[in-house]
């Protein structure tokens, strides 16, 4: 019986261990005499035979070895794994992967711990390897992935067989490595793999995802000859996401002198059989480890590009208000995952490469109230026409290759959200390892800890900054065409000069509407949210077809008012039933049933034709999937549902749902639609509902919704306003961050109710007050926040620094930043404007340069303000600190974290303190003289073994271990000969090996 043709993925059947192992061994240095004298891990760069002074192979030799492997694959019997004309390109890509062994910042122990698949992934994702593989076909890429993993398996076996290999926790893995290879050799020869069928399906599925989600509607630019949808590449604007509270959560922060801190426990090493476990409450008096705090402190406080959140977190719950761009972000992530390396030349979205996206809009999945789907039904549940191989989704998720994008928890009825969470938890329990998860929601739809126990990081999309608004306006007018260009600059001027207009332009939806209306009305804009929405409805309902010279293509010609009357029936039904999507048949039934009561619609002819006209020509409705109807945006549904409630005066329905997060905008817009007498009745009923609330949280929610609705009222009786404000004031000051956030939703009016600094009872009250004010999206908050600039609490002042990005840079710098007491603080600089503002202020301020800022900008700022301390974080470009040499006075403290290319720190110093996180500790090669070092352990497997290598004479060390639950071994510190003082911050039970330290070392423990 002849041999069956070989599928591209089955390279193992053609290259068994007997062929691969000898070739791989030539890449690695063989042990010589004395190799077993060390008990420490060996860096990979020291184990390869093509690096260092004693190398036995050149890069050309490595390429020759790679070419041998590729030829062996192509010359074996059966179907070749990839087209023969790609052999040279594949050999080059494979050699780049193998050469990357000498570049990884990893030792042999870490490599074995990661495993062969992770080691292969890291080799493939180095810049040189990624560029070399960019133009390969799918079959060649699959072959490259497989051969790299196979080679890494043999490399790890080589490591574990070295006599100098540090076994410890890896004994079991070392013992089974050879057995695993033998079994895999046998298994791969006998069992056909499913990879080929899966890979063939994914070659169809990923382009489908890119096509389906690669366009979006930009409101208003579909007038004249413009298309209805625009490429996502043109329309997408990257926004920022941050922790929901800024630095005012409970992570520790504050300045201190080196050595024992207030509340720490000093334990003489000669008397410490165990580390004590007492947990004193932290104080806010500065008695902490040596760490300044800034507006970006804490494990998640630094704002990051929203599309990069999954680069550092496996699980994210992302909150955002209506129109903030949540669904657009989901589309962007899905499309980015579906793209090839060639379609992402700068590698910005490389963290999603090789992942399979599943876009799961909950409004679609819960339309009929049916059970949420299991993975094998993910595609059919969202209307994907492709049929995957049986078990494909399970294999993708089991392998940890999935990107699960769950959009719109807030669009699930409140009563069904616990069921949604159980569904998510079931999925996490089965497929939690390796996959990336993003869940989106409106801010108040679920409580703060809804998914926190499941390992989700809770982030919120930030309101658009002035810079983002400007970028959006530029892109919108560029996409709209040449005839729109004349309106761009006048609109930008209006957004700068009219605060009421700028206050509306806080998210992509509102910015799009403003741009569209500004052009549509030849530069004249309505004022206020209600007027803006009404103008948008008029534009979409009646002017859209007229401007395009389209004359009733459906045979139905209706004015604006009857269309609104009919469409608002659908909006009311959806809102009342907690839905954002409904069956087309039900929508048609509701509309046709209402037509007899609308004379103009009844005279228009066939009721079905009227429904078809509303669905296809109104611009407000769409058939989002076969048999399903929804609004083009939830905002229009809320606005029209509110109009229906006021028209039919269903005030009882409104007040019964006042505490329901899905009804927030409905309540506000109901007040906007209501006449003065009706407004008074709505507010009276809302106060009664607050009185009847079962608990403080519900009562506060109703009062805040009512207070926030006041700004929508065209007229409100002074007595009603006074009563409502006095009742809201009863909830002030807020007790928690969650209450502060809820109060801030009331808008600028809450500023009049918050206490002045001299009237705050304690630091906690002051902090909650500033949190509330800093979350108010109005420039009116700036003078209020300025009153707290001199507050003694570092947490209060750090919240003020955090808020800088939310307001006009210059005004906030002048009124707040310049007045903030700088003691114990870093002043965060994220852009050119902030750098100029800091440089213009008097010296004495420690500066935190965050993000991809150029060295020239950092240099100019440091020279101008001579900061006593400098922190640099998340900068992928900097490689050294030579620019600090020109500063008038060298900083005493330098802190570096998450700067992967910054390996040379020797240009600064001598320092009082050098602060590094463990990711920086892993890559740094040269360090300055320093009296003390602080290391923050954030990695899953904390490691202090580089401390003796980099700081052999270090006298003082602080170790902060707050972000992981894995223990850290202190025994490597015994090799630091000059060590005299150690401060440990974190759970004492997580610090192991304290008994190994010399008696001369004074150990202080500061429990978290």
Give a quick rundown of the structure:
This protein has 1008 residues and is an alpha/beta fold.
What does it look like?
An eleven-stranded mixed sheet has the order 4-25-23-21-20-19-18-17-16-15-5. The chain has a seven-stranded mixed sheet with strand order 6-3-11-7-10-9-8. A three-stranded antiparallel sheet has the order 12-14-13. The chain is built from 40 helices and 25 strands. Helices cover 42% and strands 11% of the residues. The chain is globular, with a radius of gyration of 31 Å. Helix 3 runs parallel beside helix 7 (138-161), helix 9 (195-213) crosses helix 12 and helix 30 (696-709) runs parallel beside helix 32 (737-744). The protein is α/β, with parallel strands linked by helices and 1008 residues long.
Q: Characteristics of this structure?
A:
42% helix; 40 helices; single chain; seven-stranded mixed β-sheet; alpha/beta
**Could you say which overall geometry the principal axes of the C-alpha atoms support?**
globular
Rg? 31 Å
Kindly estimate the percentage of residues that lie in beta strands according to DSSP: 5-15%
Strand order of the largest sheet: 4-25-23-21-20-19-18-17-16-15-5
Task: Determine the structural class based on helices, strands and strand pairing.
Answer: alpha/beta
* Count of β-strands: 25
Main beta sheet, described? 11 strands, mixed
Assign a percent range to the helix content: 40-55%
Distance between the termini: 69 Å
The number of helical segments is 40
Averaged pLDDT, please? 79
Give the low-confidence spans: 1-14, 33-39, 167-172, 219-228, 245-290, 296-300, 544-553
């Amino acid at each position: 019986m002849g041999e069956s043709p070989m599928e591209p993925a089955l390279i193992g059947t053609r290259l068994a261990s007997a062929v691969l192992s000898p070739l791989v061994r030539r890449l690695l240095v063989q042990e010589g005499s004395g190799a077993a004298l060390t008990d420490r891990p060996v860096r990979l760069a020291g184990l390869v035979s093509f690096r260092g002074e004693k190398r036995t192979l050149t890069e050309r030799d490595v390429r020759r070895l790679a070419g041998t492997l590729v030829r062996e694959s192509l010359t074996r019997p059966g179907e070749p794994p990839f087209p023969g004309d790609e052999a040279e390109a594949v050999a080059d890509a494979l050699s780049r992967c193998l050469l990357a062994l000498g570049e990884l910042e990893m030792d042999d122990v870490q490599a074995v711990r990661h495993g062969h698949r992770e080691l292969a992934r890291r080799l493939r994702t180095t810049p040189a390897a990624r560029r070399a593989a960019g133009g390969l076909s799918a079959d060649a890429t699959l072959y490259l992935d497989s051969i790299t993993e196979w080679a890494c398996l043999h490399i790890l076996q080589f490591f574990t067989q070295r006599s100098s290999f540090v076994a410890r926790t890896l004994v079991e893995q070392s013992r089974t490595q050879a057995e695993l290879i033998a079994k895999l050799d046998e298994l791969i020869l006998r069992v056909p793999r499913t990879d080929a069928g899966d890979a063939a399906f994914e070659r169809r599925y990923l382009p489908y995802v890119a096509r389906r989600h690669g366009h979006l509607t930009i409101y208003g630019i579909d007038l004249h000859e413009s298309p209805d949808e625009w490429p996502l590449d043109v329309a997408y604007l990257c926004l920022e996401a941050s922790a929901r509270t800024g630095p005012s959560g409970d992570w520790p922060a504050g300045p201190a002198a080196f050595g024992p801190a207030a509340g720490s426990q000093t334990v003489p090493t000669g008397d410490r059989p165990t580390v004590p476990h007492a947990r004193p409450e932290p104080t806010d008096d500065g008695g902490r480890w040596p760490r300044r705090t800034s507006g970006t402190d804490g494990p998640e406080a630094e704002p990051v590009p929203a599309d990069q959140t999954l680069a550092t977190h496996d699980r994210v719950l992302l909150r955002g208000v209506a129109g903030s761009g949540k669904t657009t972000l989901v589309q962007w992530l899905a499309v980015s995952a579906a793209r090839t390396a060639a379609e992402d030349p700068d590698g910005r979205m490389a963290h999603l490469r090789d992942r399979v996206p599943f876009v799961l809009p909950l409004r679609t999945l819960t339309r009929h109230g049916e059970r949420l789907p299991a993975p094998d039904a993910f595609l059919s549940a969202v209307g994907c026409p492709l049929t995957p191989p049986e078990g494909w989704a399970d294999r993708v998720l089991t392998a940890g290759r999935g990107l699960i994008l769950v959009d719109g928890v807030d669009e699930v009825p409140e009563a069904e959200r616990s069921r949604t969470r159980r569904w998510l938890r079931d999925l996490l329990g089965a497929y939690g390892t390796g996959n990336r998860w993003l869940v989106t929601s409106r801010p108040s739809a679920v409580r703060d800890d809804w998914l926190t126990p499941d390992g989700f990081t809770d982030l919120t999309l930030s309101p658009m900054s002035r810079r983002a608004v400007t970028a959006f306006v530029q892109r919108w007018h560029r996409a709209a065409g040449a005839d729109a260009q004349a309106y761009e600059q006048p609109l930008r001027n209006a957004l700068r000069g009219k605060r009421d207009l700028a206050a509306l332009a806080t998210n992509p939806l509102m910015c799009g509407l403003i741009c569209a209306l500004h052009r549509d009305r030849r530069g004249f804009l309505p004022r206020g949210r209600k007027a803006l929405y009404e103008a948008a409805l008029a534009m979409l309902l009646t002017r859209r077809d007229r401007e395009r010279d389209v004359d009733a293509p459906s045979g139905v010609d209706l004015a604006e008012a009857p269309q609104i009357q009919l469409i608002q029936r659908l909006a009311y039904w959806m809102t009342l039933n907690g839905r954002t999507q409904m069956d087309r048949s039900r929508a048609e039934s509701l509309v046709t049933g209402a037509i007899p009561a609308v004379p103009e619609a009844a005279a228009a002819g066939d009721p079905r034709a009227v429904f078809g006209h509303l669905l296809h020509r109104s611009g407000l409705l769409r058939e989002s999937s076969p048999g399903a109807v929804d609004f083009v945006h939830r905002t229009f549904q809320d606005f029209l549902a509110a109009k229906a409630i006021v028209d039919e005066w269903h005030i009882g329905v409104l007040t019964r749902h006042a505490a329901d997060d899905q009804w927030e905008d409905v309540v506000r817009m109901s007040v906007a639609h209501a006449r003065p007498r009706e407004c008074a009745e709505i507010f009276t009923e809302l106060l009664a509902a607050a009185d009847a609330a079962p608990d403080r949280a519900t009562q506060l929610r109703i009062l805040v919704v009512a207070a926030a609705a006041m700004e929508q009222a065209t007229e409100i009786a002074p007595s009603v306003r006074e009563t409502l404000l006095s009742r809201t004031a009863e909830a002030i000051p807020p007790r928690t961050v969650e209450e502060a956030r809820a109060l801030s939703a009331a808008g600028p009016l809450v500023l009049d109710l918050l206490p002045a600094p001299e009237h705050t009872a304690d630091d906690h009250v002051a902090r909650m007050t500033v949190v509330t004010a800093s979350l108010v999206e109005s420039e009116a908050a700036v003078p209020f926040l300025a009153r707290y600039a001199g507050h003694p609490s570092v947490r209060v002042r750090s919240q003020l620094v955090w808020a800088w990005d939310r307001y006009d840079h210059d005004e906030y710098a002048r009124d707040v930043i310049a007045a903030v007491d700088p003691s114990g603080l870093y002043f965060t600089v994220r852009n050119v404007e902030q750098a100029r503002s800091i440089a213009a202020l008097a010296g004495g301020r420690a500066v935190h340069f965050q993000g991809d800022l150029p060295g020239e900008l950092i240099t100019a700022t440091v020279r101008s303000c001579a900061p006593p301390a400098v922190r640099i974080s998340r900068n992928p470009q900097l490689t050294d600190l030579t620019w600090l040499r020109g500063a008038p006075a060298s900083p005493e403290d330098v802190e570096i974290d998450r700067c992967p290319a910054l390996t040379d720190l020797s240009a600064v110093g001598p320092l009082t303190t050098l602060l590094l996180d463990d990711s920086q500790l892993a890559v740094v090669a040269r360090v300055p003289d320093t009296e003390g070092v602080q290391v923050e352990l954030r990695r899953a497997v904390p490691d202090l073994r580089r401390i003796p290598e980099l700081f052999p004479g270090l006298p003082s060390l602080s170790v902060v271990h707050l972000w992981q639950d894995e223990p850290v071994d202190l025994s490597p510190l015994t090799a630091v000969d000059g060590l005299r003082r150690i401060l440990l911050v974190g759970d004492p039970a997580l610090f192991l090996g304290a008994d190994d330290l010399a008696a001369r070392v004074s150990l202080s423990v500061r429990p978290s």
